[in-house]
């Protein structure tokens, strides 16, 4: 199979597009013919060695955790899927080596869900990691219908999905973004505010009584700003502030979850959730996709088209 791989840690320049052995399929896994694979910041952070203290990596390493494709073979004890099934998944395993930036991926069934009919292959590939991150953060703070949520980096890959999930459950959403993304946030159902100095005052002008929950998808001190506005300082979740637990909030690290991914797919099929795709690249140009992600200016998801 063709795949993107690296023989050592490094930047996008260490990525190679070449032939790699087809993956073996374990008893609780299926073999997926990949249609598209989502690119996430964690992919180039793994490549750079940033996650080495917490995850074993083996080289040559095929990056990638997000995937959408068609089941081509079924393991000995994987009755959840049949050959020809269209699936999507957040295929994070205990160790890093056999990722999704390849023509074929062996994926444990616990990492997968059925692909929503209402999403393209590119959109389905961009949903799992970002969507599960947003969904888990929302569940951690216990957001309810009728409450008000402040979403930081609301126009990004995770934030834009969080906005839609919250709106679908009847939550009022205040979303931070640059002014060029305000119309985009309004189209998702959020009330936009510009991030940066004076943010707390701008939010108070919209919600004088204070907010119920806050979701931090950007870092940079926004947990403290949120706690100035929260009715209950503990109802803040972050994926970017390593000290949020010490500050009384919740740290979120996404995990594979078939039930949650299925719920996201149902929202998509109901027309309540879509996946904004910022850019697509062929698999052979993964290094360019990484550089685009590293620039940090995309609105929505970056996706590799594989087959």
TrEMBL record:
Superkingdom field: Bacteria
Start and end of every Enoyl reductase (ER) domain?
10-304
Q: What is this protein called?
A: NADP-dependent oxidoreductase
- Gene3D superfamilies for the chain: Medium-chain alcohol dehydrogenases, catalytic domain, NAD(P)-binding Rossmann-like Domain
Against CDD domains, the record matches this protein to:
MDR_like_2 (cd05289)
A GO molecular function assigned to this protein is: oxidoreductase activity
